[in-house]
Amino acid sequence: MSNFIPPKETGFRALRNIRRSQSQQKRLSIIIRWIIALFLMFFAVFPVIWIVSASFNPADTLATQRLIPRNAGLDNYRELLSSPVFPYLKWVGNSIKISGITTLLSLSITTLAAYAFSRFRFTGRVNLLKAILLIQVFPTLLAIVAVFLMISQIGDVIPRLGLNSHAGLIMVYLGGAMGVNIWLMKGFFDTIPREIDESAMVDGATHWQIFTLLLLPLMRPILIVIGILSFIGTYGDFILARVLLKSTEQYTVMVGLQIFTSGQFSQRWGQFTAGALIAALPIMIVYLALQDKIVGGLTQGSVKG
Amino acid sequence: MRQVKPQVGGEEAERFTLGFITRILVTIVLDAAAIWFVSRLITNEDYVLAAALSIVAIIISIIMLRHKAYPLRWMSIGIFFMFMFSIYPILFTVYVAFTNFGDGHLLDKDQAITQIRRVRYVPEGGTSFTWTAFRALDGDQNEFGEYALWLKDREGVGYLALPGQPLQRLGPGEGLAGEFDRNGIPLEIAGYERLNAITLAASGADAELREIVFGSDTDGVQIASAQTASQNKARYLYDPAADTFTDQQTGDIYTAVDGTYVTADGLKRLTPGFQSFVGLDNFRRFFQSPALRGPLLRIILWNFAFAFLSVVTTFALGLTIAYIYNDPAFPGKKIIQSFLIIPYTIPSLITILIWRGLMNPEVGIINVTLRNLIGSAPDWFNNATWAKVAILLVNLWLGYPYFMLICSGALQAIPKDIYQAAEVDGANAWQRFQKITLPLLLVAVGPLLVASFTFNFNNFNLIFLFIQGGPPIAGATTRAGHTDILISYVYNLAFAGGRGFDYGLASAVTILIFFIVATITLFQFRFTKMWEEVSENV
C-alpha cells in the first residue's frame, strides 16, 4: 500500500475511495469478529443457561430436560432446601464459616509477616522469603496422606481439632497462609514510603501503632481484594474438605455437591443444578464486579512471574 | 530493638515493662500447652508428630524470648502453621515412603505381637465342659475381671475358671464356692452372682463373654457354644529373644520380615503385620512388579500429555480470542470479555460436575444433540480415548479465560510502533503475529505457561470429579484408570479402598511427583531468571 502513488488528476477521488473501502473493510471485520464473538459467547454461557433451565424444570432427571422447561417452577429449590438427607443450607453455612474464618486469620498472618519483611532488616530475612516461595512449590494436595494421618492423631488428643472438625480443616488451610500472598503483600508495603513510619516514630509511635493505625488503613483496598480472592479459593476447595470431613452435617457445600453426583446422578440432576446455582452465583457476581481488579492482579502476577 | 533499627531509641527501657512480662507469661502458657499435648501424643505413641511439635514449640519459644528475634515475632503464628501443616506433612510423606504403612500394617510391632498372641486353637483331645457364668459383684473393678465360669467336665467334676488363673478343682464349700445345687453347680461363689443363661443371651453379654479366655494364657478355656466351653491354647508362642513365633499346632516358625511374620519358605504369614522400614521397596515395586509398572507408566505418560495438551489448547484459544479483540476501539469489547470469562468465575468443582451431566453418554444434551444431527455419539465415559478427549475439552473450557485475560494484558503492553514499522517493511498479518507478537508475548507469559503446566500436572479435581480416573485399566493390581494422573492415582492408593490402602506406596508415588514438579519449577526459575530477580527485589 505504501508503494501506491495516485495519479495527480484523480488523487482526491482515489483517496476517498480508499478511505471508504478501508472503513467498509473495517466494518466487515467488526461484523465477522462479532459473529465469532457470538459463537464463542454461546459456548461460554451455554452450560450456565442449561443448568439455570434445569434448575427450574420440575422433572428432576437429566433425561427429561429441555431448554425451555414445561411447567417451570421452584420445585427443585424447595426440595433441595427441605431435603432431610442433604442439609444444603447447613453446608452453605459451613462453607461460609470455614472460608470466612480462614480468610480473616490468614489475612492477619500474612499482613503481620509482610510488615515485618518489609520494615525490618534481620539476618535470615532473604533466606526465609525464598524458603516460603520454595515450600509453595509442593502443593498441600501432594502431602494429603500425611495431613490426614496428622489430623487424626491430633484428634485422638483433642477431638474438636481432629478429623471431621471444621477447626482441623481451618488449621490445614492456615498452613498455606505464609504463601505467595506474602510476596504480594510485602510488595504493597514496600510501595508505602518509609518516611511515613519514620516520622511517626520520631513522634514516639511504636511499631504496633504504626502498623495498625497508619499502614493498615492505607492497605485496606488491597486487603479487601486479596481477602475476597482468598475467600473464593477456600470456598472452592474440595479435596482437603473431602478427606478431612466425614459426616454429612459437617460437609462444605463443595463436598456436598459432589455427594449429589454419586450414585443416581442423572436422577437428581434438577436438585443438583439448583444447588450448583446457589453455590456459584454469589462468586460469579463478585468476580464480574471485580473484573478489572482481578485482571490487574493477574497481569501483575505475570510481570512478577 | 536497637540492633534492629538503630534510629529507634527509648524502647530499651520497655524491656522490663508490662509488655515484657506479658510476653513471658504467654510463652509459659504456650509451652505448658505444648508440653501437655506432646505428652498425650507420646502416650498415644505418635512419636513423629510429638517430635515435630516439640521442635516447633522450641522455635516459637526462642522467637518469643530472644530480643534479637523481634521481627520474627510478627510472623510467629504464620511460622507455626507453616511448620506444622506445610513442612511437617512433606517430611512425613518422605518418611512414610520408606515404610510399609498401609492396610495390614497399621499397628506398631508391640500391638501386632499382642494381637497374634491372642490367636488360639483347640488342641486334639482337648477337654470340653458345660459352663455357667458368674459376674463379679464389683463389676469390672474385680482383680480377676468381670466374669468367672463354673465348668463341669464329662465326669461331672467342677472347676472354677478365672481369667489369667489356672483352673481350680473345687467341691461344695471349698475355696470360693458355696453349696452346690442338684446339677452340681455352686449356688453362689464368694464375690460373684450367678447369671441365668437366658438373661445372659438376651442382654448381649454372652458375646463379650465368648471373647474372654478363662484359665491361664497357655492353657485356657473359652466358651464355644451356648452349652459347651472347650479347652484351647495360644496358637503362636512368642520368643522375645529370637523375635520369632512358633505355631503350636504345626510347628512352623515365623520370623519378622519387612513388617510381617513369615515362615522361612515365605508361604505362610501371620496377620496383622506391623509398620516397619522397608527401605527402597516401595520404589523398587514400580520397576519390578509388572502389574504395577504397566499402569504406572501409562499414567505418567498420560499425565505429561494431559498437562502439555491442556496448556497448549487453553493458551492457543485464549491467545486467539485476545488477538482478535485486541483493538481498544472494538465496539462491545467489554461485554464480550464479561461473557467470555464466565467459565473462570464459577468454582471449578461445580463446572466440572455440570460438564459431567452435559456429557453423560446416554442422556446428556451433547450426545442427544449429536445423535440427532449425525446419528451417533462418542461414549465419553467408557471409551479410553474419548474420555481423554472429553477431559481436554472440559479443561479447555475451564482454562481459556485465564490465558485470554493474561494475553490481552500482555498484548496491550507491546508497543504499537513495532507493528507500524513492520507494516512499512511489508510484513503481512501472519508474519507480524509470528515474528513480533508471539516472541514478545512468550517472554511475558512464559513463566505462567510453566506454572499452568505444573498446575495441570496435579489437576486432581478435574480427573477425579469428572470421571474418577476411569475407565479402569484391565489387569492392574491397584485401582488405576485410563485417565488417572499421578495425583489421582495416589488418592486411590491412599483413600479409595476397595483393594486396600497402601500409604507407603502412595507416599512413594508422591515423592515421584515432588521430583517432577520440583524439576519443572527449577527449570522455570533458571529459564526466567526469576530467582535472581527475587534476590534483587528483596
Care to give the gist of this entry?
Chain A is mostly helical and 305 residues long. Chain A has 13 helices and no strands. Chain B folds into 3 domains: 86 residues, no CATH class; 115 residues, no CATH class; 246 residues, MetI-like fold (Orthogonal Bundle), CATH 1.10.3720.
Q: So, CATH architecture of the largest domain in chain A?
A: Orthogonal Bundle
The total count of strands of chain A amounts to: 0
Query: In whole angstroms, how far apart are the ends of chain A?
Result: 40 Å
Would you state the CATH class of the largest domain in chain A?
A: Mainly Alpha
Biggest sheet layout of chain B:
9 strands, antiparallel
Number of domains of chain A: 2
Question: Could you give the order of the helices and strands of chain A?
Answer: HHHHHHHHHHHHH
CATH topology name of the largest domain in chain A, in short, is MetI-like fold
User: Mean pLDDT across all residues of chain B, rounded?
Assistant: 82
Shape of chain A: flat
Number of self-contained structural domains of chain B: 3
- What is the class of the largest domain in chain B in the CATH system? Mainly Alpha
Distance between the termini of chain B: 22 Å
In terms of structural class, how would the helical and strand content of chain B be classed? alpha+beta
Write the layout of secondary structure elements.
The complex is a heterodimer of chains A (305) and B (538).
Chain A: H1 11-55, H2 75-82, H3 88-119, H4 125-135, H5 144-157, H6 166-174, H7 180-191, H8 194-202, H9 207-236, H10 239-244, H11 253-261, H12 269-289, H13 291-304
Helix pairs in contact in A: 1-12, 2-12, 3-6, 3-7, 3-9, 7-9, 8-9, 11-12
Chain B: H1 18-43, H2 47-65, H3 70-73, H4 76-97, H5 109-117, E1 120-121, E2 128-136, E3 147-152, E4 158-161, E5 168-169, E6 192-194, H6 197-203, H7 205-211, E7 214-215, E8 220-223, E9 228-234, E10 236-239, E11 244-247, E12 253-257, E13 260-263, H8 281-288, H9 290-324, H10 333-340, H11 342-345, H12 348-358, H13 365-374, H14 384-413, H15 416-424, H16 429-457, H17 460-467, H18 486-496, H19 503-528, H20 530-537
